[in-house]
């Protein structure tokens, strides 16, 4: 049973994934349960007050009953309270978490195709699903998986190598990176110059066989929901999670 009780975690690892993204790994004393795709609310102290921000779990491994570690990715926002706190956070520092929350999770039974669309750190909940996706592909080689990640340039891609590894398991898995500020002459076959919205029509999305997951910038979510609504998608096969940015 999932619990929403507050627990304290200690920072055990910290690394920059890009100039704008920090990966933070925390450990608790007791097992922490979650379903891949869910998020936690993190409480931290900043300038004498308590702040809270929500972050999706980015753990790469399949959740286990004795898991005590959670990994999160923080997008740095200029002058943001959370950005300043996590940028300065040292190993051994502690935060409080509440959760898990959210329904951006895989269905018990897979549709014919799973489509994941993300901007920036919105790809982290999909990373946490990779172990389960590998298992499902092994069980059903006909399962199609499409992951589309939108960022400004190649240096800001998150976990691209891991998503590309998924494409090595089956011809039915695809990963596409969309760059809004990358030189079009330097792109490979799984990259394009533009936005994730430029790919929607090429997906030929079908509500009878597809399930679409959206996570990232609010503007992207709103635009995507409008598009897929017009294609006949309903909440049951159009899942989304908005990333809200706050400086306070």
Could you characterize the architecture of this molecule?
The protein has helices at 81-88, 124-127, 130-139, 160-167, 200-203, 218-230, and strands spanning 7-18, 21-27, 39-46, 49-56, 69-75, 94-101, 113-119, 144-151, 173-179, 191-193, 210-216, 238-242. By secondary structure, it is α/β, with parallel strands linked by helices. It has two domains: 7-101, Translation factors (Elongation Factor Tu (Ef-tu), domain 3, Beta Barrel); 113-242, Nucleotide-binding domain of ferredoxin-NADP reductase (FNR) module (Rossmann fold, 3-Layer(aba) Sandwich), CATH 3.40.50.80. The strands form two sheets. A six-stranded antiparallel sheet has the order 4-3-6-1-2-5, with helices on one face. Strands 10-9-8-7-11-12 form a six-stranded parallel sheet, sandwiched between helices. The longest helix is centred in the C-terminal third of the chain and has 13 residues, at 218-230. The relative contact order is 0.16. The model has no long low-confidence stretch (mean pLDDT 93).
């Amino acid at each position: 049973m999932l619990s929403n009780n507050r627990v304290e975690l200690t920072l055990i690892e910290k690394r920059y994934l890009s100039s704008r993204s920090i990966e933070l790994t925390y450990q608790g004393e007791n097992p922490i349960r979650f379903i891949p795709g869910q998020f936690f609310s993190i409480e931290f102290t900043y300038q004498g007050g308590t702040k809270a921000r929500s972050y999706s779990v980015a753990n790469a491994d399949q959740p286990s009953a004795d898991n005590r570690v959670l990994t999160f990715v923080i997008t740095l926002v200029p002058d943001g309270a959370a950005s300043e706190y996590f940028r300065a956070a040292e190993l051994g520092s502690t935060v409080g978490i509440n959760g898990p929350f959210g329904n951006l999770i895989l269905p018990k039974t897979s549709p014919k195709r799973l489509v994941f669309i993300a901007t920036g750190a919105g790809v982290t909940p999909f990373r946490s699903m990779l172990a389960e996706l590998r298992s499902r592909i092994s069980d059903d080689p006909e399962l199609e998986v499409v992951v589309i990640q939108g960022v400004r340039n190649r240096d800001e891609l998150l976990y691209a190598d891991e998503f590309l590894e998924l494409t090595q398991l089956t011809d039915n898995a695809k990963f596409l990176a969309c760059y809004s500020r990358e030189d079009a002459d330097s792109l490979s076959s799984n990259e394009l110059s533009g936005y994730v919205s430029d790919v929607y029509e090429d997906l030929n999305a079908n509500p009878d066989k597809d399930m679409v997951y959206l996570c990232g910038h609010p503007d992207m979510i709103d635009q995507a929901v409008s598009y897929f609504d017009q294609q006949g998608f309903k909440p049951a096969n159009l899942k989304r999670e908005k990333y809200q940015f706050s400086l306070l």
